[in-house]
Design a protein that fits this description.
Elements (H helix, E strand, L loop, with lengths): L5 H16 L12 H20 L1 H5 L8 H26 L5 H9 L17 H18 L8 H29 L3 H20 L9 H8 L7 H19 L9 E3 L4 E3 L5 H11 L3 H14 L1 H16 L10
Antiparallel strand pairs: 1-2
Helix pairs in contact: 2-4, 4-7, 6-7, 6-8, 6-10
The structure holds fe (ii) ion (FE2) (2 copies).
């Protein structure tokens, strides 16, 4: 293969743009602009890291779940998140990066994950509220990604979104049960809602104004809606669910605006988001330390798997009867 000359590059870029505008999928072997590849690697890696780090806040409640049923539901949910991380790392690898390198980037702080996971889970009601609000916000963000222009990412998102619906549903069902319980249970649901509402709104990111990155991601059909459009959609979807549940959303400015046909709501504390993004949230250090430790403890598994793969490739591996 010879290097493309500038004139060729312009033609390739033209073809690429026509391809995405016709809503066709870009596949790993297709030519793509370097900046498109870099944007996708950054976005998919950040998404994968969020799934993996996102296992921690709820994972601590698995051994403290109040019943066997709650424990098995939570266990299934946290395992799903691990699976989401794996699909996404695999999607990123189709762009020419290595998963080990992405993990290094995460534990060395060179790549980010969603700030929402830097908040603590103080009671079992937090498990329900995370399902309802955090997975609910993730669904709003992720459903449009099922139509992202990059094929492996879009296909991973289809499966992920199906599982996210279950996550949201199990959270809401847990909260419904708790709201029908004792005064103490109802208070603990309200307390969890008070703590998670604003961070959930921040999950959509700050208002973008005329951000050139957003415009470019939209032209590439990676992003379909602005952060503010998605945040509005989430609020409009969530308010009737909160009413049904019997909890109050902690925003005195929240009200229906008949003219807009949408809810007005207050402004999140963006300074808080920037602090958490800079690593100064309540649990940033703990999350990374845990991930680093888990990665180190998995060293022997990776070494054994690599040695086994090499043996298989050389034909010297002992085949275990009945093994897959
Ligand atoms: Fe997930
Ligand atoms: Fe989820």
């Amino acid at each position: 293969m010879t290097l493309a000359q500038p004139a060729d590059t312009a033609a390739l870029e033209q073809d690429f743009q026509s391809l995405v505008e016709s809503e066709s999928r870009v596949e790993p072997r297709d030519w793509m602009p370097d900046a498109y590849r870099a944007t996708l690697i950054r976005q998919i890696a950040q998404h994968a890291h969020s799934e993996i780090i996102g296992m921690q806040p709820e994972g601590v409640w698995i051994s403290k779940a109040p019943t066997l049923r709650r424990k098995s539901v939570l266990l299934a949910k946290v395992q799903d998140e691990a699976g989401h991380g794996l699909y996404l790392y695999a999607a990123a690898e189709t762009l020419g990066v290595d998963r080990a390198e992405l993990t290094e980037n995460l534990i060395e702080g060179r790549q980010k994950y969603s700030s929402i996971f830097n908040y603590p889970t103080l009671s079992f009601a937090d498990v329900g509220v995370i399902g309802w609000l955090v997975d609910g916000a993730a669904i709003c963000n992720q459903v449009p990604l099922c139509r992202a222009s990059y094929g492996p990412y879009a296909r991973a998102m289809i499966r992920i979104c199906k599982e996210e619906s279950f996550h949201q549903r199990q959270g809401y069902e847990l909260l419904m049960t708790m709201m029908g319980g004792s005064r103490m249970q109802r208070d603990s649901v309200q307390d969890a809602v008070n703590r998670w509402w604003w961070p959930s709104l921040m999950m959509f990111g700050p208002p973008e104004g005329a951000s050139p990155n957003t415009a470019r991601s939209m032209a590439w059909r990676i992003k379909r809606h602005t952060n503010d459009e998605l945040r509005q959609r989430f609020v409009d979807m969530t308010v009737p669910q909160a009413d049904r549940l019997g909890v109050e959303l902690p925003d005195p400015e929240l009200r229906w605006n008949a003219d807009r046909g949408a809810h007005d709501f207050g402004t999140p504390n963006w300074d808080e988001l920037y602090e958490v993004v800079r690593g100064r949230g309540p649990c940033n250090a703990e999350r990374i330390a845990h991930r680093r430790r888990a990665h180190r403890e998995g060293d022997w598994v990776r070494e054994a798997a690599t040695a086994h793969a090499a043996k298989r490739a050389s034909g010297t591996a002992k085949v275990v009867r009945g093994a897959p």
